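Journal club prep, shared notes

We agreed each person brings one worked example of a sequence with its structure written out as tokens. Mine is Cytochrome c oxidase subunit IIa. I'm keeping it raw so we can talk through how to read the token line rather than staring at a rendered picture. Sequence first:
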Amino acid sequence: MNEDPKQAAPEDAKVDEIVKRGPSGAIALAGISTAIVIGIWFVFYFAVFLPRGVIQ
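Then the structure, token by token:
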């Protein structure tokens, strides 16, 4: 890989700019996924456990 240093510098600057913005997409994806799992848990709780009543 013989890259021209003049061409690599702008690409490195682009990468540095992206990295400076941080992992906002990953954090958003994790938040959405967590919300979905919690929502499914509540649906399961209200649809399955509460209708059964107290187990004796």
